[in-house]
Amino acid sequence: MMFSQQDLAMLTALERKVLWLATWTIHHANHVRDNTDGVKVGGHQASCASLATIMTALYFHTLRPQDRVAVKPHAAPNFHAIQYLLGRQPREKLENFRGYKGAQSYPSRTKDTDDVDFSTGSVGLGVAQTLFSSLAQDYVRAHGWGLERPEGRMIALLGDAELDEGNIFEAMLEGWKQGLRNCWWIVDYNRQSLDAVVREGLWERYQNLFRNFGWDVLVLKYGSLQEAAFAEPGGEVLRRWIDNCPNQLYSALVFQGGAAWRKRLNEEIGDQGPVTALIARRSDDELAQLMNNLGGHDLGSIMAAFDAIDHDRPVCFIAYTIKGYGLPFAGHKDNHAGLMTPAQLETFRKAMNIRPGQEWEHFEGLETPPAELQAFLDGVPFASASPRTLQASRIEIPEKLPIAIQPEMSTQLGFGALLNELGRETTPLATRIVTASPDVTVSTSLGPWVNRRGLFAREALADTFKSERIPSTFNWEFSPKGQHIELGIAEMNLFCALSALGLSHVINGERLLPIGTLYDPFIARGLDALNYACYQDARFILVSTPSGITLAPEGGAHQSIAEPLIGMAQDGLAAFEPAFVDELAVIVAFALDYIQRDGGGETSERNWLRDETGGSVYLRLSTRPIEQIKREMTPALRQAIVDGAYWLREPGPNCQVVVAYTGAVAPDAIQSVGLMAEDRRDVGLLAITSADRLNAGWTAACRARERGLVHARSHAERLFAGLPRHCGIVTVLDGHPATLAWLGAVGGHRVRPLGVEHFGQTGTVADLYRHYGIDANAIIAAAQVIAPGRPIRYLGAA
Ligand SMILES: Cc1ncc(C[n+]2csc(CCOP(=O)(O)OP(=O)(O)O)c2C)c(N)n1
Ligand SMILES: [Mg+2]
What we know:
The model has no long low-confidence stretch (mean pLDDT 94). By secondary structure, the chain is of the alpha/beta class. Helix 8 crosses helix 9 and helix 24 (563-569) runs parallel beside helix 28. It has a six-stranded parallel β-sheet, sandwiched between helices. It is built from 33 helices and 20 strands. Strand 17, helix 27 and strand 18 form a beta-alpha-beta unit. It binds thiamine diphosphate and magnesium ion. Thiamine diphosphate (TPP) is lined by residues 47, 50, 73-74, 121-123, 159-162, 188, 190, 192-194, 323, 336.
C-alpha cells in the first residue's frame, strides 16, 4: 500500500474535519442542545483530539472492510464523525449525540447504527476482544470455513492508561500461547490518564513486555517536522532534550505554547551553539508546531508505518500523541473531562474556517474542492464493501438431545454425558460447537467431549502421554480440527473468548456454537467481561459448575451465593438452574437454538423473554448426585421448563403451603413436602428451572397490563392462579434467598425465602444444608410459621 502526496493532502483535510466534527458534536450535545439535565458528563474533546490523526490514517487509508476495530471509548465521537463523512452515519444521530437513540457516548455494537465492530467503554475489554477475535478467526479458518473471504486484522485503539488494566496482560499471555496473528494494538501514548500524567519511561516497559510475548513493537515518537529538525545542525541536542524531558513538563509546555517552549529551551539548551540558531529560526508558532509534532500526529509517518507491516505477527504501535492536540487545553493534566467554553469554541471555529450554521457541512472550511474530497471518500477502501456485518444461517437443533440418564446423576454429570453423546455425531450441530474452559476442562465434565473432538491449535501437537503409551483417561491432542480451546486460568479470558467466538456469525460469517465452562464462583472474576460479551450481543452458553454450598467439602469462597442474582440481573443472559438431567437436556436444546435467534429485533414488552431476538444462556449446575425422576417429556412440560417452572406436585384447591425450589436442593424440597403432607392441606411443590425467565415473564406481563393489554398473563401468574390467598410459599435454593423472594408478589402470597447468605464453612452437604437452613427441616420450620396450623409432626429440633 502506498500513498501519494495527493492522498496525504486529502487526509490532512479530513483530519481537520474529524477533529472539528468530533469536537463540535460534543460541544453541540453540551452547549447547544444541552439535554444533560445538569448531570455531569465528561467532555472527552481532549481524548478525541489525541486520536484524530491516527483514526484518520486508519479509516481513510489503512483499513480494509474485513478489518475490525475496537475504538478507545472516549474516541467514539471521532468514529461517529468518520462514519458521517463516509455517509454511514446520519446527521441526526450526531446532532443527538448522547441523546435518546442518538449516537452513543462510547461505541456500541447494539445501540449505535454506524457499524461499530466492538462495543467499548469499560477500558481494557475492547483491547482483549480484538485478540480473541483474531483467535476466533483462526479457529474458523482452520476448520475450513470462510476461506473465500480475506483475513481481517483485528485492531485496538487504546489509551496508554488503559494498559493499566490487567485483563490486557492476561490476554497477551494467552495470545502468545495460542500463536496470535493479525492483531494490532495502537497505543495512544499521550502520557495522560483521567486524573494524571503517566510515569516516566512507561513506553520502554511496554516495549519490553510486548516483545517478550512475540509482538513486533513500533514506537512512533517523532513526526516528520521533528525528524527534519533533528537533521539540522544542533538537531541532535534538541532530540536529546525531548527524550529526557519529563512527561509532566512536556505536557505543561504543550499547554503553554510557543513562548514558553522558547523560554524553557533557551534556558536548558540555549547556550549550545547550533541548536540556539535552530530555535531562533522559528517563530513562537512554528516552535510550538515543531514541539507538538509527535509521531502520532504526523499523518505521513503513521500511514507509512502501517503500510510497512508486511507480516501477520501481532504488532503494538506506541504512538506519541498530545491529549487535546489542536485544542486550547492541549496537554493540560485536567483536560480529560474538559469541555471547550463557548468562547473557546468560537475561536476554534474561526481557526477552522467554519461559518456559523454550517457546522455540520461535510467540507465546510476546507480549501480542497468538495468534489475532489467526495471522490476521495467514495474510493476509501474501508467503505468499499457494504454491509460489513455478515450473516450465517442457523444450525438445526433437534428438540430432543440424545442422553442416557442414570438413576442417580448430578446436573454436571448430565452435562458431560450430553456433550459426550453430541461428540459422537458428525452433524452440523456437533461440528459447530466449540468449547472453552480456563483450566477446568476436566473438573467441569468436558473431558469426554474433548477426548472425542480434540483440542484446537493451529499447529498439531501430539499427546506425549499417548505416544509414550502411558495410560491416561484423557487424550489431549492438539490439531487445527480440534474443537476445544484450552485456556489458562484467567476467567476474564474465557469471557473475552466467548464474546469473540459468539460474534463469529457476524464477524466471520460463520456460525459457531460456543460453550464455556468454569466454576460458578469465578464468574465474579470475569463479570465485567461477561457483561460486555452480553452487551455486544455475542452468543454463547456459559456452564458453571460446581455451584453453591453444595460442593460442601471444598468450602471457602468456592461456595457461590450471588450468582443466581447475577443470572437474573444480567441483561442478554437467560439463566437456568435445573435439578434433573431431563430438564437439563431440554434446556441445552433450547439454549443451542436460542443463541442463534436473530438479535435484530427491538426488545419490547411483548417479547421481554427475548424469545424472538435470542441471547446468551447461563446454566448453573451442581455436583450433587440426585435421584432422577422417570417421566415422559411432554411438550407442555418441555415448554414449562423453558419458561422457568412447573408443578412437580400440583397444589390442591385448599393448599396451605407451597414449596418452590431451584436446583440441587430438590431432594430436600421433595422430602419436606412428603413430611408435611399429613399436617398441611394440599401442599404444592413448584420446580423452578429458571428464576430469571419466570421473573422476566412476570414483570413483562405487569407492564403489558399497565399499558392496556388487560389479558396479558405470565407463566408465574398462571401457575399461581388457583392458589388460595391464605397459602404461604416457602422458597429455597442453594444461592441468595432474594432470587425467589419476589414470588409472593405475583399472586399476593406470604413468602419465606430460604437460601444462603453466608459462606465459607466446610462439611458434608447435609451438614451445610442444616447449618445454612436450606434442608427439609428448615423448609418445614418455615412452613409451620407462615402457614399456621397444627404442629408439623416431622419437624425436628433445629
Ligand atoms: C474499567 C474502567 N475503569 C474506569 C473507567 C473510567 N475511565 C475512563 S477513561 C479513563 C482513563 C483514560 O486514560 P487513557 O486510557 O490514557 O485515555 P485518554 O484519556 O488519555 O485518551 C478512565 C479511568 C472506565 N471507562 N473503565
Ligand atoms: Mg492517555
